[in-house]
Amino acid sequence: MKKQLHFLLGCAVAAGLASCSKSNNDTPVTPPTSTNVDVRGSITTSQHWTKDKTYRLRGYVYVDGNSTLTIDPGTKIVSNKDSAGVLVIYKGSKISAIGTASEPIVFTSNETDKKPGDLGGLVIVGQAIGNGNHSVLEGGVDAAHQAFGGNNDTDNSGTLQYVRIEYGGKAVNPGDEINGLSMYAVGSGTTVDHIEIVRGLDDAFEFFGGSFNAKYLIAYNCADDDFDMDDGYHGKIQFAVSVKDPAFTDNKGTTGDISNNFEVDNTTDAKGYLSTPVTSPTMSNFTAIGPNNATGTSTDYGYGMRWRRGSKFILANSIVMGGQKAGLDIDNDPTATFYINGESGFRNSLLHAVTATYKTDKLTSVAFTDVTLKTLAEGRDGSKSFTSAADIGLTDPFNNAAPNLLPKSGSAAITNVAKFEGTALSDAFFTKVAYLGAVDPASDWTKATWVSWNR
Questions:
Q1: Which domain of life is it from (predicted)?
Q2: Which domains are delineated in the chain?
Q3: Strands (E), 29-135
Q4: Is the pTM of this model over 0.90?
């Protein structure tokens, strides 16, 4: 399918049209430039979007044919609710979306009354390794663009820097949705940093396999899970924030689903949880803020962290607080076994929850209790739990309109020193800071101009 660009404004130019010729004094008249561009269908040759125009996604738009979409700093990409536009960067093609702190690239609603779901979202599809948990892309993409993954873990899908995605999310069927940013088998050659997802209708970030690494991520007031990882995702992430609106969750119907700061799986029940590669993110310096039982908290809120279905993980030097049903939850025998044998760990971190701080669930043959989990997390892994969120010492974390995640003087985030021990955390990717959580006590990056709150 050829690309289709429809210009909404500007001169209707035809050869020899008098209005676009010279005036009476022979001074050349330049036709006005269109400032609003509708984008449909497939883009199969490289294209450059500039900040002097606004680009409106009409339905699903596919960047295909090994082409590159370059987007300048300050460019706005919009969608109306009648089509909930989705931009898909398909495998072999690239996106070069390099914003700046003062001029981020913004995907957002084109409605006057902006609502979650006005925009579909951004989907990047690579050729790195996954485990086949999902056989096709979610969210109603066409048949020609459903396959993802390959065997090239260093695959390069381009660059995303200083990008904000607002009012995204598109539910095609229950469990079949477009998220704010979906990354399918994206390789480590891809650059991802300084990304914010705002007021999304489903997950903020979902990573389906792949090996890319990321820094400086914010999930703010999204309805389902903020960091959802599965299909064998095995990358590294540092400096990330999750903040929940206590009253806002998506429609769960009769699924029994819940909304969490983290929800990490390997494979489904039917696949036995053990497909390889195993979902195994390595993460440091997260700050995750749950609803903390505020007035009006949705009954669909669940856990600060839900690790399940055979996933393993390292989460270190982090702060997780305000989880509704539990703080750290481990489900299913293989997930528990990874934690027991030390392949997984919640290390050198701070934890608070409204009800149960630690929880184990859906175990059949592994002897692993809430007490055992606490013993390992606070003994072997060196983490600490708190009965009061205030005792962690962040400035104003539950002020949803303007969350202040800066550690106060004497905060446990400062008095406990970050550790980057073991092969995974000693990797050069990780910046070896001294503090816990996402925010440097001396310099709060979440207050930079590219970040948007109060939505």
A1: Bacteria
A2: 37-250+260-447 (2.160.20)
A3: 36-43, 47-49, 54-63, 68-71, 76-79, 86-89, 94-98, 105-109, 121-125
A4: yes
